[in-house]
């Protein structure tokens, strides 16, 4: 009894596990149970049971209710899908003037709305795209095809690549000095001579629309949430789900609403990129000291000035992290959005991966990553730019960048014009190096892959087989062996022990939703892969982070590496693993581990760094060894912060597991991909995404509650 | 009496959802304890006073005494729950938002305890900020800001960022910023509390030097009684939102009205606070010493010389006119004597 009073938590956990394992052993696997059957598949089978809700028939294989809960929510995806279709095709028809038929026609409101948004987006994207690539869409939008035929001079070519490169380099120089200028120039030259110009510019045009729009909307919504509690309460749950929802699953509804193409890609990118921007804006605005706000008021700011001249600049640090996130998400979406017809590098990358042409994929991936890093650095430099009021500049000094750019336009155009007389194999390399006509290292990489395969085939294969048969299969079997009731008890019990009734109710509700959906088995597989990835990532992250923390230079180096790796679009991680391990679960898991290790390392370092230096001195004066200090002082104090890293690690791992569906997994992600090619897939895709988000949120809730409690306990808030 | 610039009339500030209603029920008789039991916190309790043009009024109180809240009511950073506040005869609480902004842009300046500089702006940009907010051309604001930089002695650091400055330097920027629009009314909310003692003394002297030149109407908040004595023309001592005493430094030291005030005054070295005029007698036709003292001298500074005289000493004003006499023994009794009611 004494012990029980001393460690009440320990005994609670013990009791929970005893109940859990008892349930696991007490409930047998039904004989008819076979994994893989997602339960609500539309195959007619006499063994299935069915029920009908709201006109949707749900068929499933009945099991003992303790073993697997019946998919009582099976009608939901169908209903959601029907609702979207209804909204789009029938709801609120209004009269619209039809230009072609010269009469009023009835059209549903939402359809008109989505069409107008699509048209607007397409216009803006084309406008930007036609500057480097040339084209007539924009001119036609203002005039007509007939006009264009009558005025052939209006068919202007785009700017030669030399001009765009020079312009980017000058902009880089203006914003961030010599280093950034050179980096910008080299990146653009690389992109050009490797024959990636056209897809790169396509991707860039799409990003240059999506990023500012996401930034502006995120900022506005963040400001609104800051000003009004109601808005915040409304936005909060949506943001939470959106942040953990896999990007794939938003594709399907977007496809239904906005159709196929760049415009849909921009919209969907915005949907994914806006939530983190809102969150970081809010965080930044909240952390502005009260006295600074008062100082602004006493300086006579009106509300507008207070927001844009005092609050937002003061919150700049967090808002910039938001911008960085937006850029990251946009580039990662540039690849994923290729599924719904976004042109450019992403499309090439997907195609190459599909054909297992690792070399080409690597080049496209490198291009995306380089442009992503460039844009990230430029936006940072732009935000940190300083104005010089005192320099007495001559006319030349003041306008030198503009002059240089004007010069580069003239020279570039002349060179391109001269080039047109010396056509090399019919291509004017001085104007644009066409796709696949530049230097290519693809052959080299492919040979490299072949070489690796030939040389290490056996050891790789051995490792692969070992991992799959000895680790992954048993782990998966264990996860699937859990009766649904036992799992629910475990989750709800953990929630109760960590955060009381409130937490128990939240995680219970979330897990019950998944249990009642038709995809419980798939969700278990997703969870198992995530858990495996997270465990390995955390071990690596902890070790690497701790080691790097011992030295200032290695620490800074590691943080920079994390920064750069984080800028890579998530799809890029699949390239090297496919190179090494081909199309297996191992590939997915290794990609997951690499991707999820980034936050693990970062938060370990930051957690250790957050330990006050005074405590180091205290420890040293108490005569501890380095190891003792690490174990007794630094780890316990850094632990809450590190746990937040665990949170991020889980989200990252979950994302990568879902993206891994591209390689071929058997989890929720695979179903989301399937829903993409399903005519009625919108509802399924969306709800699968919600399921994944809920898995993330269960972990998130448990960890966050624990961290808050722990921090209060340690007195670091 | 010169012109009244700030006038407060029974100002109340009570925090809490039911503040307004409870205040009406209390009928002007607010008791902090009963209010607190019902979930309301009394910030300012029935404050009435006036500040005249060119005067330094120091509000002194410990943390939680409501001194900062009082200042924020007068600058209308928080809305007073009840009472009237007049700035140069205009009812502050009746001003529209636009009028209030106008008032702040032209009439008021404020310095903050934590400096509250904008981290993304350089020194010169920070100082020019209130001017830019008014819509003045950038070049002009920079020119004006450079003048202010010279005034507070930060020449050569105009392109520094706040994070690159020491605390004292940051507060100089804060002061320059609050003075950039040339306000008539100057609020200082514990401006020197976050500074080291030596820097604080330096800044206090700087502040007095500036005031000699600028002659603003000042409300100065502090929790440091010595600072209050050093800077004030008059002092308000606050406790739990109530004004305990409002008087000149000398009178507060010599005649503390409540026990609470007395606890502050007991430890104060009087010779460092009191001036000769506070202890002088009426002019009499007796034989005076050749030595003369100014009525504004601090006793501690001249005590040595006064005590070396046998006869009474003449006290003169600025124009060297004799306005009274002082007896050496009185100096001794003032400094070392107990609590005397009248001098």
Question: What does this protein structure show overall?
Answer:
- The complex is a heterodimer of chains A (717) and B (343).
- Chain A is mainly alpha-helical and 717 residues long.
- Chain A has helices spanning 2-6, 8-26, 75-89, 109-133, 137-142, 145-150, 161-193, 197-227, 229-244, 247-258, 262-286, 290-298, 303-314, 316-336, 345-354, 358-383, 395-419, 442-481, 484-516, 520-549, 552-567, 574-581, 585-609, 613-621, 626-659, 668-676, 681-714; strands spanning 49-53, 56-60, 93-98, 103-108.
- Chain A folds into four domains: 93-154, no CATH class; 159-190 and 402-441, no CATH class; 194-385, MetI-like (MetI-like fold); 455-714, MetI-like fold (Orthogonal Bundle), CATH 1.10.3720.10.
- Chain A has 27 helices and four strands.
- In chain A, the strands form two sheets. In chain A, strands 1-2 form a two-stranded antiparallel sheet. A two-stranded antiparallel ribbon of chain A has the order 3-4.
- Helices cover 38% and strands 24% of the residues of chain B.
- In chain B, helix 5 packs across helix 6, helix 5 runs parallel beside helix 7 and helix 13 crosses helix 14.
- The model of chain B has no long low-confidence stretch (mean pLDDT 86).
- The chains are: A mainly alpha (717), B alpha/beta (343).
